[in-house]
Task: structure prediction
Amino acid sequence: MNPHQKNQTDQPSLEALKAGDREAFAKLVDMYSPMIYRLAYRMLGDAHEAEDVLQETFMNAYRHLDTFEGRSSLKTWLYRIGANQALMRLRKRTPTLVSVDEEWQTDDGTTMARELEDWCCLPEDEFMTSEVHKQLELASSQLSSALNAVFTLRDLHGMSTRETAEILDISESAVKTRLLRARLQLRELLSEYFAERVEERFGD
Amino acid sequence: MIDHLKDEDLLTLCAYLDGEEDESMCKAILTHLEECPACRALANTLMKTITLYRETDQCIEMSEEVRDRLYSCLDMEDLA
Result:
């Protein structure tokens, strides 16, 4: 059995955690550290920084458990700490030049010029290459940190709209619109690449 | 009857595909998708984009070393 997966089914009791039970905290670490690591890695695109965020998240959680009031779940609370740590690092990297809620619609209400090749017709092996992995990373690195955070939480970590709003401290309607914009931007960026693959495979 | 999908339609469609809306809310959108290849391509590739990211995200694994260093910085090596 993968040691990362031990103790993953039963969450430690809040009483034990608040009482400083080290074994209970270790259970919490085993349950959520792989998720927090994936979250940080996806938000930062860097393994070393993801590890730093992972450590900061659990050190902060350990220090502040006594102030945890249980209004959200422990999982949401840990995600909130992790996402904030990652966002703080991103803010230090580059200043945000574009407002995350800036409209980018055209007059007829459609969102920017869309590539409308249906590249889903490509055979599955076309999607499994390391080049495709690179394209996916390249595309997500072009999202603003605000859009990337929502996309990662909602689409990759399966958080609900409400949980995502809670973790990022934004409204539920902001989660919905940012998620759509993230998905559309990623689709558009990938479509340029995949339209070429379609042309190569099926073009004259 | 609707023209090509606008952002508000896509929001409704995504909510339906995410299981947050029932089918009755986006009947007109689904009918339009059956009739319009361009919007169908948009919807198909939008969903495929999400699927591709989900698949690659599962490849990101926390190594044993990362876990050990986490336990070490928490002063919990004895429980690792």
About this structure: The mean pLDDT of chain B is 90. Chain B is about 65% helix and 0% strand.
